Predict the 3D structure of the following.
Amino acid sequence: MEKIRIGIIFGGQSAEHEVSLMSASSIIKIIDKSKFDVLKIGITKDGRWHLYFGDVENIENGQWINQAVPAFIVPDPSRKYMITLQNGIETRYPVDVFFPVLHGPRGEDGTLQGIFELMNIPYVSCGVTSSALCMDKVYTKKILKNEGLPVADFKVYFKKDLLLEINAIVREIEESLGFPCFVKPANLGSSIGITKAHNKEELKDALFLASEYDTKIIVEKFIPAREIEVSVLGNENPIASLPGEIIPSNEFYDYTAKYFDGGKSKLLIPAPLAKEETEKVKDLAVKAFKALDCSGMARVDFLLSKVTGIFYINELNTIPGFTKISMYPKLWEASGLSYKDLIEKLIELAFEKYREKQALKLY
């Protein structure tokens, strides 16, 4: 059987560049090489595309760029391949399906997915619209709230207003949300740029920190809660995994706790929930996935209030972490789907979605 050529894309221009390297390395190491011919595609922090033909170990440590060849793609449906130009000679590397393992803006936010759509080529992950909506925490919450799904109270501010109205903004947050509260860039993941502010001074610092990563800032009401996550898989008929619970080593599950705390944070899989709670959170995860028109995969993050027992939907990650310690694949392993089989299922779903689109009369 002829192998499927899969273009695995890693790196990218977001602050989650290093996380992407770890995720992609894990996928490349485990993917079935008897079925898939892997084309390793790296994007530098300044947005330059390359093909990398070296050892996978050099991806995670960032040394891949030293052995990479500049490359590009053309958003043209007649050119389903990567292109290199060396010494005036053009070499083409055909691609059957793309697997972007890019976290954050310019990778997970619909921009890259738009290029794939212009190429008319299958790709793993959500489509353009759902990727953009889920990347933006504000629009995610607005849509979920409109669909009658539970989200915590929040406020939205813009970077341009901070210098002129910072005292008024702080006062409004104190009166409407209270302390502590969470301050986040609207478009970013891996808990980068997020602060739990306990007072006015911390809030001011938190707002300016978040503004370093995005022009739009979301401030969320603090809920004393357990952190529950559910993996969702599928297209029109998605299914949910068993839920997991995170016991962070820090005050909340920040970037350091996620990736660099030496295993001090604990992942409880499955989460110690009552049967009815497990079914409730799985149902909510699927409803959120459908409400935001997701396809392929997403990890749905919840806050389970310790006071009311209500599950609040915190956010959806359309290209969740895929490292060896990441919750998305670990939840599916606990649900009976191995890491290797999960990767193959995601590729199958990409082809399924592509075939359905080809049957439409779009033009």
In short: Residues 4-123 form a domain with the Rossmann fold fold (CATH 3.40.50.20). The CA atoms of residues 49 and 193 lie 26 Å apart. The first strand starts at residue 4 and ends at 11.
